[in-house]
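Subject: Protein entry, chain in single-letter code together with its fold tokens

Category: Structural biology, sequence-to-fold work with a learned token vocabulary.

Notation: Tokens come from a learned vocabulary of local backbone shapes, not from coordinates.

Start of record: The labelled sequence and token lines come straight after this line.
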Amino acid sequence: MNTKKVVLSFPPSTVEDPIIYHLIMDYGLMVNILRASIDAGKQGRVVAELKGDDNQLKNGANFLESKGVEIEPLTEEIRHIEEKCTSCTSCVPLCPTGALNVDRETWVVSHDADKCVVCLSCVDVCPYRAVTAHFQ
């Protein structure tokens, strides 16, 4: 099973259509919505993790394109710069997925990129600029 993190941009004509439902039911994809912003009748943007075999992912992408949905790979990532981090933990409670965590014995903050959904909450709150957003 393959995993792809993608950004889906929905045109106004498809915002209210059950497109994610069809990806799951018709194409057998596992869809994990990481972040979404949808304005009914205007536009939609969804950051999602899609899981399936090569054929399922290809067919799902073809379906999305046929509906006018733009598909882009997720190209932004959060970097935790350990040299700058003082482990003040201000970022930890704001992380919705637990990607930023503190070891309760050493009180050292760590970052798990696999859990990160690039919500940017940590970037805004870090007083030491030890957490930054980068484009790949």
